[in-house]
Amino acid sequence: MKKNILVIHTGGTISMQVHAETGGVILSEANPLLKEIDKIQQFAHITEVEAFNLPSPHITPQKMLMLVSTINEQLANQQFDGIVITHGTDTLEETAYFLELATNYTLPIVLTGAMRSSNEVGSDGVYNLMAAVRVASTDEAGEKGVLVVLNDEIHTATSVTKTHSSSVSTFQSPQYGPIGIVTKTAVYFHHAPLSRTYLPIRSIDKKVAMFKIYAGMEGELLEMIPALGYDGVVLEGLGQGNVPPALMTVIQTLLDKKIPIVLVSRCFNGVAEASYAYEGGGKMLQKMGVRFEHGLSGQKARIKLLLELCAQE
Ligand SMILES: NC(=O)C[C@H](N)C(=O)O
Prior knowledge:
Layout lengths: L2 E9 L4 E3 L6 E3 L16 E11 L6 H17 L4 E5 L5 H11 L6 E4 L12 H12 L10 E4 L2 E4 L4 E2 L8 E2 L7 E3 L4 E3 L18 E5 L7 H4 L8 E6 L10 H9 L4 E5 L16 H7 L2 E2 L5 H14 L2
Parallel strand pairs: 1-4, 1-5, 5-6, 6-7, 13-14, 14-15, 15-16
Antiparallel strand pairs: 2-3, 7-8, 8-11, 9-10, 11-12
This protein binds asparagine.
The site of asparagine has 10 residues, from loops.
Keywords: Hydrolase
Pfam families: Asparaginase, Asparaginase_C
Organism: Sporosarcina soli
């Protein structure tokens, strides 16, 4: 039996086209994806909603919270078996992880996008939408948290990241790999996430900054944090979670001011942990009160700290 799937559009390349004269990729008022839905109807009964039509660099945490409201309103009015959200790929992982934390539905919620716009040769939009609808239509996709489906792979919102600026195989889960695949005839899951965090929020009224740590970094930028009104900081530390010694004084000052500092590794793989005991090493940072966030990228750790701070209100 066909499932009832809600498709929420938010914009991105999947809803864009190449302008005939300029060659630039643009959003048009009439989302070209809306015309393509007939090709997907064979897999599920589709209800479409256009939440917004934005390039994903224009998506903010406020917009992500609006998306949560859209989902809540739709589910309050009608029974759906799964939800698919189309989104630009640049910040897709942040919206996916925001939804992972801010919702706790057991029905499948699947994000998808495209690397090639609707009128480009080899456009991957309709195909990815179809694959996402097929995944959202399976019972197995429920209770696995928010999922991301592109290029025939199923990833969790927690581990997926955009790894290539233009390749259609850009979405990868460096640490753990995909949790399933989509083939021509079926959807297969290989494993499932172990746990899920729920951080319900009503508004976004906190600010969290993020810095990639680099060799020779000085403390001046971090010193600006309290004056600029930031409520928390995420540091993408070196290696296993270390920083240059020049940052230690300002880190202590921020912690004394009760501004939480979360540390992740700037490495593509592995986790930040308190290993090194030299000046600026992870052991010293942990002793000072810096929090280590295991297995999250900087951008995901930033979303999590933001929601934690907003949830405390
Ligand atoms: N492939 C894409 O969707 C990239 C686009 N710049 C966006 O994120 O909106």
